[in-house]
Write a structure and sequence with these properties.
- With 176 residues, the chain is α+β, with helices and mostly antiparallel strands.
- The protein is built from three helices and ten strands; from the N terminus they run H-E-E-E-E-H-E-E-E-H-E-E-E.
- Strands 1-2-3-5-6 form a five-stranded mixed β-sheet. The chain has a three-stranded antiparallel β-sheet with strand order 8-9-10, with no helix packed on it. The protein has a two-stranded antiparallel sheet with strand order 4-7.
- A hairpin with a 4-residue loop joins strand 2 and strand 3.
Length: 176
């Protein structure tokens, strides 16, 4: 599904399955990543895709030797290698530059929160909207229309639009 997600974000000019077809290398140990991506900004990268389905807040792990073998192909192609992890229990993709991972370790461990902090999905067109805390939502009751309470204590009132940039300030909405 990664190729479809990357394509849907709109920043990719090319997404190609890299690990298909014949491959001949002098060592016989070369591992090809899953996809080659070229973005509209002319960034080329190779992506290895992994699915992580364990319980929330468990740690994604991979062998350091596997990452070493995987990184050899991108080095020969002079293209950076990224690791896309689908955290299926969270329905969340993270996209990490493997240069941030130490392949000399026997086992490489990636925590979900660390993956989110270092997420490079923006390279593929992903974006998030943030706001400065505290976020608030305010409703202003119209003062010229009576507000009522029913016997269960539910208030009915009209919201004023005067605080919002609408053309007509005579509009009102009944809330209860």
């Amino acid at each position: 599904m990664f190729a479809y997600v990357a394509a849907a974000m709109g920043a990719c000019e090319l997404i190609s399955e890299e690990d298909a077809g014949s491959l001949f290398d002098d060592s016989g140990e070369l591992i090809r990543p899953d996809f080659r991506i070229v973005t509209r900004d002319a960034l080329s990268l190779l992506v290895e895709v992994k699915n992580f389905h364990k319980a929330p807040f468990k740690t994604f792990t991979m062998k350091g030797k596997y990452l070493q073998s995987l990184k050899r192909y991108p080095r020969l192609n002079k293209v950076p290698l990224h690791l896309a992890i689908y955290w299926s229990r969270w329905n969340l993709w993270t996209h990490l530059d493997t240069d941030r991972l130490d392949e000399t370790q026997e086992t490489i461990a990636i925590e979900l929160l660390d993956a989110v902090k270092n997420n490079d999905m923006r390279l593929l067109g992903d974006c998030m909207i943030g706001t400065v805390s505290p976020l608030s939502f305010r409703l202003y009751a119209r003062q010229d229309i009576p507000q009522t309470f029913d016997e269960d204590g539910v208030a009915s009132f009209y919201v004023t639009w005067s605080h919002f940039p609408f053309k007509s300030r005579n509009q009102a909405m009944l809330c209860s």
